[in-house]
Write a structure and sequence with these properties.
The complex is a heterodimer of chains A (269) and B (258). Chain A is an alpha/beta fold and 269 residues long. Chain A has 9 helices and 10 strands. In chain A, helix 5 packs across helix 6. Classes of the chains: A alpha/beta (269), B mainly alpha (258).
């Protein structure tokens, strides 16, 4: 019974379509996207750049309304409604005039009337967990790119919403920092077990972190394939050397490559 | 470190200014210019000391209406900018009128204000406000509309309300812009006060100037000019100090996401 409850879909997107219209020009962005995320599950979306992944997040976040289709969160329809998810953007988007300590409580502050003092102990605990205990009173411009992203992630974690929507959070970091951050995210997520929808364009990142992966096509965007990632947790970085890992990586790579070829042909026509 | 940087900013212009005074003094002695045409800096200083009690009384009066006018003007500018930003459609309708208001010459407006409101404090405050509100409004409005796109996106995705966006993001983000407007206003407010005194007042630097003019006392005129410059700079400096205390240096200079 509990097993079944756990498996129930926490977030469900049903046949979302969206077309941008700009001065008579029409561009179909989303072409019937359906996907679901169970509670406590880590799901990644991978696709070519410009495939409307961020647009999909804007739909889930309620900034855009789909032409058709429904978004259901925890059993209630939230299509076109804001304030239901916790969001971590590609850029850290920290307030430069606030200290790290005051930045991480922002999401909570925007969503509830809870006094700041009540969030502080939890914030301090997570900052310490992120190795940022000594930086609580520091301003963001003094932090490195990786540290800023950790602050941004903790802010997302402190949000009262169960679902974390992470939009290519490590996209702007250098390769080494990126690997560090993936490790760190894996550790902290395996402890906190929040529901995560993660956008990336790195196949390795998606395979290392996720329970399931949706591979997206180019515009107009469809789900090309849903892939379950079988590796058990806790995961280690050495995972990337396993033959099963490489086989999955190759499968996704070929899928995306084939999609790109057809995309080019369509453009040429 | 901080002190030496401040020193670096103050010394060069001060040295140039002192050099200028020296050349002035030398030129006046060399060409033996008559006093009523161009007094030497030394004579101006002597005159300033000689008429100190009268000068102080006038300065006090001017200072008072300057500060009052600046406060009212800055507050008006702030409210106007916030209203134009927050009320939909208001900016398109009212902004051109704001610019229009700056094309009315104050010297032409001053006598009208006297006809409407008499010789009291009110017309003077109105005049200084008209001079002061504009830089504050324009600077703040500019700051409010230039909010960082990534931060705005984050706030909206997180479900922030219009008021939360305004008070937690847009306004703090626009603080540096607000202060650049305030500094301009502070400097302008003294000129506004002097012009407002020309249209009729018992005392003030403006009155002192009018008297100097009608008696052809160039030295007194220069004393008044130096006073106005000095008060303007002092006000500018005060607002700068306030800015240093309120605005994080990082926020003023650095892009939020660099």
């Amino acid at each position: 019974m509990t097993q079944e409850l756990k498996k129930a879909n926490y977030l469900e997107l049903a046949r979302l379509t969206l077309t941008f219209r700009d001065r008579g020009l029409e561009e179909r962005v989303l072409d019937g996207i359906s996907l679901h995320v169970a509670k406590g599950e880590f799901v990644s979306i991978i696709g070519p750049s410009g495939s409307g992944k961020s647009t999909l997040f804007h739909l889930i976040g309620g900034l855009l309304k789909p032409d058709s289709g429904r978004i259901v969160l925890d059993g209630a329809e939230i299509t076109g409604q804001v304030g239901h998810i916790s969001y971590m953007p590609q850029q850290p988007a920290l307030l430069p005039w606030r200290t790290v300590r005051d930045n991480v409580i922002l999401a909570r502050e925007l969503n509830g009337r809870m006094p700041k003092a009540n969030i502080r102990p939890e914030a301090e605990r997570l900052l310490e967990r992120a190795g940022l205990a000594g930086y609580a009173g520091t301003y963001p411009h003094l932090l490195s790119g990786g540290m800023k992203q950790r602050v941004s992630f903790i802010r997302a974690l402190l949000s009262p919403h169960e679902l974390l929507a992470l939009d290519e959070p490590f996209g702007s970091l250098d390769e080494l920092t990126r690997l560090d951050m993936q490790r760190w995210l894996l550790d902290i997520w395996e402890e906190e077990k929040r529901t995560v929808l993660f956008i990336t364009h790195s196949i390795d990142e998606a395979l290392l972190l996720s329970d399931r992966i949706y591979v997206f096509s180019g515009k107009p965007t469809r789900v090309l394939k849903e892939i379950a990632v079988p590796f058990h947790r806790p995961r280690r970085g050495e995972l990337a050397l396993l033959p099963e890992f490489l086989a999955l990586k190759q499968e996704i790579y070929c899928l995306m490559k084939a999609e790109r070829e057809t995309g080019k042909q369509n453009d040429a026509r | 470190m901080k002190r030496s940087r401040l020193g670096k900013e103050i010394w060069p212009p001060l040295a140039v200014f002192v050099g200028f005074l020296f050349i002035w003094q030398a030129a006046v002695s060399l060409f033996a210019t008559p006093d009523w045409m161009l007094p030497s800096p030394w004579q101006i200083l002597r005159e300033a000391m000689a008429s100190f009690p009268r000068l102080w009384m006038n300065t006090e009066s001017t200072l008072l209406i300057t500060l009052a006018g600046f406060a009212v003007g800055a507050a008006t500018g702030l409210v106007i900018a916030c209203l134009l930003h927050l009320v939909p459609g208001m900016k398109i309708g009212v902004y051109p009128l704001l610019i229009l208001s700056q094309n009315i010459p104050t010297v032409a407006l001053a006598p009208l204000l006297v006809i409407w409101f008499g010789f009291g404090l009110l017309p003077k405050l109105i005049l200084i406000t008209l001079v002061c509100f504009f830089p504050v409004s324009v600077a703040l409005l500019g700051g409010l509309t230039r909010t960082d796109a990534a931060l705005m996106d984050y706030f909206r995705m997180s479900g922030a309300s219009k008021w939360q966006i305004f008070f937690k993001l847009e306004f703090p983000h626009a603080l540096p812009a607000l202060f650049s407007g305030l500094k301009l206003s502070a400097a302008y407010s003294v000129m506004g006060a002097v012009v407002s005194e020309w249209m009729g007042a018992q005392k003030g630097i403006g009155v002192f100037m009018m008297n100097a003019k009608s008696t052809y006392r160039a030295d007194r005129m220069f004393v008044a000019i130096f006073l106005v410059v000095f008060i303007s700079m002092a006000l500018f400096g005060l607002v700068s100090l306030l800015e240093k205390a309120l605005v994080r240096p990082s926020a003023a200079r650095e892009e939020p996401n660099s």
